[in-house]
Structure formats: C-alpha cells, structure tokens
Amino acid sequence: MGDLPPEQPQLPNRVRKPRQSPNRARKQRQQAGTNKRYCEYCEEDITEYSWLRHTQRNRHINNKEQKEQKEQEAKPLDKEEMLREFLAISDQGLSPLSPLSSAFRVEIARAGGTANMSKPRESDDMGLKAPFFVSSGQCWEKKPLSTDEFLDDLLDGFSKQKTQIYKRGIGHFPCESAPITQVLKQLWFPDPESTFYAVNMEAKSAVMRIPECLYGIYNLDPEDVTTTTNITPQFSFVDIHVDHGRHGLTALSEDCVKLWALYPLSDHNKAELSEVYDKNSLFIALQGRLEKGEFCIQTAAEALYLPPGYIHATVTLRGGLTPGIQFTTPHCIAPSETMFILDNEKREMTKEHCMPLLESILLGLRSREAKYVKEAEAALCRCYMICAKWKTKVLGEVTKQAGKLCPKCNRSWKSHD
Predict the structure, then answer these.
(1) Could you identify which of 187, 202, 221, 346 might form a hypothetical disulfide with 277, taking C-beta atoms 3.0 to 4.6 angstroms apart as the criterion?
(2) Rounded distance between C-alpha atoms, residue 307 and residue 111, angstroms
(3) Where is this region: Disordered (predicted)?
C-alpha cells in the first residue's frame, strides 16, 4: 500500500462582521469626524466630511468679504440716507468737505428739501421748461453697459490730449500733472481729502440719444450728438457753472448717485453770478444769494434734462461714470449770449467760447419762426466783433446766411465795434 498523503491542516471558520447599511455607515463617519470648518454664509460649523457637498449644494460663499459685497449689492439704494451722511459731514469741523456740506445743508433747507422732478414742468424764466427726470432707458441707443464694460470701453479709446483731470475745489484749471490712474484708483478707494475726477472722455459703444419727449417739446430735427463721459469718484464736486447755454442730458452708470443743485438764469441770479464768476468755490460764495433753488438726487434709473442756461452744481454721493450729451436749438440764443458776454468780461476767451453762441445764431437765422430770426440778428450784431477775433467755419456760415450787411443795423460787418 502506498503512503497516504499528509493530512491537511484544518482552517478555522472565518468570522464575518455583520454588514452595516449604507446610511448607518455614513452617519457613523459623520459622527466620527472631529475636524470642522466654519461656514461664514450659514454661520455654523460644518464637518470636513460634509464641507464639499455643503458648499456645492447650497452655492455658499465661504469668503466673508464676498458675502458682505453681495449683500451690499442686493441692498436697494437709500438715496436719502446717502444725503444724510453727506450733510452730516458739516458737523466734522476738520474735514475739507465740511464747508461744502454746510453750504448744501443751508441751501437745501432754503429750498424746502429735495424736489420731485419726475415730470416736465414749466419755468418762469426764459420761457423754457424747468429741469426734469427722463427714464434712462429712453436715452440709450443700445442696452446700457455695465460699469466694468463701460470703463473698458472708455479706456480703450482714452486720449490724454482730449481728457482733462480736475481736483475738487479748483474748477477753472485742469491738473496737468495728475494721471488718469489717480482718478481710477479713487473709484474704488475714495479720498475725501483730495478728490480727482476726469471729464470729456469718449466711448465707442456707450452712445446716448435725445429722448422722444424732448422732440415733442422743442420740435427738434433729428441730429447726431456726441456722448462724452466723466469719471466721478465719490466726493467729486463740480462747482457752479452753466453749460454754455446748450441743452443738456446727463445719465449715470449703475450704482452711481449724484446730488444736484439747480438755479434758473434769472436776472437776479445773473447779477449775483457775475459778481463772483472769476473766483473759486462759487457755490460756497453764493450761499444764500441765489433764488429759486432746487435740489434732487439722481440714480442710474433716471437721466436729468437741463434746459439752456440753467445754473447747476453736482456732488457725487456714490462714485461711478457720468455720460451726457448736449445739443443746440434756437432756444439757446439768449442764454448762450448771456454766458458769452460773462465769459468775455471775467475770463480769458478762446474760440471754443464762441461756438455755442454762433451755432445757436445760425439755427435762429434758419428758423421759420420770426422771433428766433430777430433774436439771432440782434445777438450777432452785438457779439460779431468779439467772435471775429477767431476765424471759424461757423462764423463764415453765419455771415453768409445773414447777408453782406448786418440785418440789425444795416452796416457792413467790418464797421461793427
């Protein structure tokens, strides 16, 4: 008999643990997790095991700064609160904004508070409409750009020669040494001590148009207008001025908020303005002296229409971009002549000062209404010799339209003094 094979060792029976349900296993793993992270959005501790799913499922933000920014953007603009904050600066005696804030507080109180400008209103001065708000949607050729898109468009066509940079409180002369980066920085980091703003920038895509309501009021002919934009950080202040007697329409980029001071070019206001016209800080100098003042707060939802010759000043309560257009009609003759004479008496004249007056005179001479023709002839007779210092194409068109002799005094143009 052969040898039997060696006896195989008997293996012990394997002891298997009872299988757990998936839900129970998941709960045990969650309970076993000791490392936790604090969710700023929910304001509670979340285990590391659940963190990824927690944030993805609920689209939470685990960055406190981003959360606060999102909450601020979702919060509706409180215009009156912004105004109260600006006027409260008057109590801070050491702030450079204190005199300006104090002057606005006094003037707004004189006017009885801010005005409702939601509808066209009649004005007793110069036979024109008073300022009023237009829905901003009526004033754009295309859909309005976001602030970032708008700013990119502006900087894409930036021209150092065309753009002028001013410092708050020094309104007559641009700051030649100030770079555009100084203005851009203050859009995000406002500087109440020394605020700079830029004017006369052109964008290719952000193009405004004259709204239909103004065509009906002034019987306008369609015309191409140039949109220019100002970059106005918070605390920017544009002192008392008149837009050379032209019609004006001003819009705002998203989130930008402005406070306007508005006064008609009445005889009383013309006399008061003439006394201080060559000085700085006109708004403060004229505190309590101008009549029929109105104040309003503008947001991006509205565009503000200003009739020719309206005296105005602005404070930016929240920084942003300020696009606008200007256009000329025969209604501009009287206010343009008023500002032309004032500029000639108080400031150094250039040919640019003549253009608004000459353009309005040319339109008046071509008008079908006799009153505008007579206004244009009289203004041309009074101002021809000043305008003739600069040989411009518009002046040639005006004299050609008027004839070889002055239609007002029947003298040759050269004999005017």
Answers:
(1) 346
(2) 20
(3) 1-37
CA distance 114 to 80: 9
Q: Domain ranges in the chain?
A: 79-327, 333-415
* Burial tier of 141 (Cβ tally within 10 Å: 0-12, 13-18, 19+): exposed
- The alpha carbon of residue 379 and the mean position of all alpha carbons in its chain are separated, in whole angstroms, by 33
Indicate the length of the chain as a whole number. 417
Say if CB 298 and CB 133 are below 8 A apart.
yes
pTM for this predicted structure: 0.80
Q: pLDDT for 222-277, tens place per residue? A: 667 889 999 999 999 999 999 888 999 999 998 899 999 999 999 999 999 999 98
- In DSSP terms, 201 is beta-bridged to 229
Please state which architecture CATH assigns to domain 79-327: Sandwich (2.60)
